[in-house]
Specification:
The structure is a single chain. The protein is an alpha+beta fold. Helix 1 (3-23) runs parallel beside helix 4. Helix content is 39%, strand content 20%. The strands form two sheets. It has a seven-stranded mixed β-sheet, sandwiched between helices. Strands 2-4-3 form a three-stranded antiparallel β-sheet. The chain has two domains: 3-92, no CATH class; 114-340, 2-Layer Sandwich (BirA Bifunctional Protein, domain 2), CATH 3.30.930. Strand 8 and strand 9 (282-292) form a beta hairpin. The structure holds phenylalanine. Residues 186, 188, 266, 269, 287-290, 311-313 line the site of phenylalanine (PHE). Phenylalanine (PHE) is lined by residues 186, 188, 266, 269, 287-290, 311-313.
């Protein structure tokens, strides 16, 4: 093709294309024209680019220069038209969007309220010198009952009140046990484990799960948590117990929390008490406590003539629920994120 003819073709096409872009009445018409003139597959631009190949070598620089002008001219006409029809670059600009507003924070997972409570309780008790101790959730009757002065025929060992397992015990320290195993019904098992392994003095807490076959309702769940406390030394008294619990309650629940002991019975403490805290104008029971029974000291090889001690067991869910105003224990274990996200 001659240079002259090529340039003439571009002139014609240019006025035709820019005219078509200028005349496009809506986005669809503009798009049709874009395909027709600028389309990558078979648009007019593509066609003239291919014609370049048949131009004489000497004329190519001139032709190429004109072709570039042609291309920019078509592109400019297209852009102007797009802008005019509201389909320009800035069409994504939303005038109601306020960049100064705070953004939406991505949600991050967090620790379960009971786990948060456990950390908090360990922190408070840690400040009073109590170290955290642990024991297994699958226990043998020696740790869960026998060493705690709960003999074979005691009603607390009833299979209806405990989760006995179908498998036989494998622990080597199931002294005189009958080979059965159960999910521990109380964290008092850890008292035995700690004393059996360590000489006095002892100052520990143990926070963990316990299991009892209760029907779930607002205040019962077959699995819950206890905070066990044990302090053994010389000359430990009930007054020490009361002080520790009162300092604890005041720290955890806030304000000055009066505490009250009511006489009770546990096989592993003597005397034994129920522990109430005064909270929101009510006396609320939070657990049991007492002075370690000499029979327990004997079971772990301590001399009850030389040492004395106190122990307590408080309900962790109850503490957490009172502090945060939760009224149904089942909410803690429903897995409902609408509930859990509030903590
Ligand atoms: N283990 C008792 C219970 O589960 C609580 C308790 C712990 C009582 C320590 C006295 C001493 O009810």
């Amino acid at each position: 093709m001659s240079l002259q003819k090529f340039l003439a073709t571009l002139d014609t096409l240019e006025s035709e294309a820019t005219g078509a872009f200028d005349a496009a009445a809506d986005a669809d018409a503009l798009e049709a024209n874009r395909v027709r003139y600028l389309g990558q597959k078979s648009g007019a631009l593509k066609e003239v680019q291919q014609q370049m190949g048949s131009i004489d070598k000497v004329d190519r620089p001139t032709a190429g220069k004109r072709l570039n002008q042609f291309k920019s001219s078509l592109q400019a006409a297209f852009d102007a038209s797009k802008e005019r029809l509201g389909g320009g670059e800035d069409s994504s600009f939303d005038p109601t969007f306020d960049p100064t507003l705070p953004g939406t924070r991505p949600r991050v997972g967090h620790v379960h309220p009971i786990t948060q409570t456990i950390s908090h309780l360990m922190e408070i008790m840690g400040r009073m010198g109590f170290e955290a101790a642990e024991g297994p959730e699958v226990e043998d009757p020696w740790h869960n009952f026998v060493a705690l002065n709960i003999p074979q025929d005691h009603p607390a060992r009833d299979p209806l009140d405990n989760f006995y397992l179908a498998t036989a015990a494998t622990n080597s320290d199931d002294q005189g046990g009958d080979g059965s195993q159960l999910l521990r019904s109380q964290t008092s098992t850890v008292q035995i484990r700690v004393m059996a392994q360590n000489p006095p003095p002892i100052r520990i807490i143990s926070l963990g799960r316990v299991y009892r076959p209760d029907d779930p309702d607002a205040t019962h769940f077959p699995m819950f948590h206890q905070m066990e406390g044990l302090l053994v030394d010389e000359h430990v008294t009930m007054a020490n117990l009361k002080t520790v619990l009162r300092v604890f309650a005041t720290n955890y629940l806030g304000g000055d929390v009066p505490i009250r002991f009511r006489p009770s019975f546990f096989p592993f403490t003597e005397p034994s008490v129920e522990v109430d805290f005064f909270w929101n104008d009510n006396w609320v029971e939070f657990g049991g406590a007492g002075m370690v029974d000499p029979a327990v000291f004997e079971a772990v090889g301590y001399d009850p003539e030389k040492v004395s001690g106190f122990a307590f067991g408080l309900g962790v869910e109850r503490l957490c629920m009172r502090r945060h105003g939760v009224t149904d224990i089942r909410d803690l274990y429903s897995g409902d994120l609408r509930f859990l996200r509030q903590f």
